Predict the structure of Alpha/beta hydrolase family esterase.
Amino acid sequence: MAATVLILPGLGNSGPEHWQSWLQGRHPSFRRVEQADWDAPVLADWVETLERAVAASSAPVVLIAHSLSCILVAHWAARGAETGSADKIAAALLVAPPDVESPALTPPEVHGFGPVPTDPLPFRTVVLASRTDPYCSVGRACGFAVGWGADFIEAGDLGHINTESGHGPWPDGERLVLDLLKDIEP
C-alpha cells in the first residue's frame, strides 16, 4: 500500500512559488493539510486539523513539514502517542523549524506554539536546518533534532528554505522525500 504524503505548511501557508507547492505540483497525490487560519495560528486548532488528516488515511503517513508545522508535528505527536494515531506515521521530514520560544527571532503569532516539546518522536524523523535561518539558530534546530530523536541535516546557507530564500523548486528536498518513501515501501 502506497503511503499518504501530507504537506504541512507553516505560518501564512506556502504560496504558489514555495518548494512545498512545487513538490505538490510534481506529485499530485501529495495532499496539503489546510488550516482554517494560516495567519493567526491556534495550536489546538492546528493539532486537531492534523489529527483529522492523519485519521482519514488508511495507509501509512509521511509528514512533510515546513517552519511552524515542524513544531506542530512535535505537539501533535505528544497527543498522538496518547491516542495511538502517531502509530500511523511512517516518517517525517521537518524543514526549518523556528524557535517559537524566542521573541527576538520569531513573530508573536507563533509564540503560542511554545514551549517546544522535546520528547522523542515515535516515528522516523529527519530535521533539516540552515546555518542562516533568521528564525532559528542551527544549534537550536540541532537541539530540537536531538530531543526528538531525529536525524539532523545541516544544509548550509539556505536561509529559511522558503520563497524569500530562493526555494521554489528544491530538487534536494524532493530527493529527501523520495528517499523517505523508498525506505518505508515494502
Observations:
- The domain at 4-184 is CATH 3.40.50.1820 (Rossmann fold).
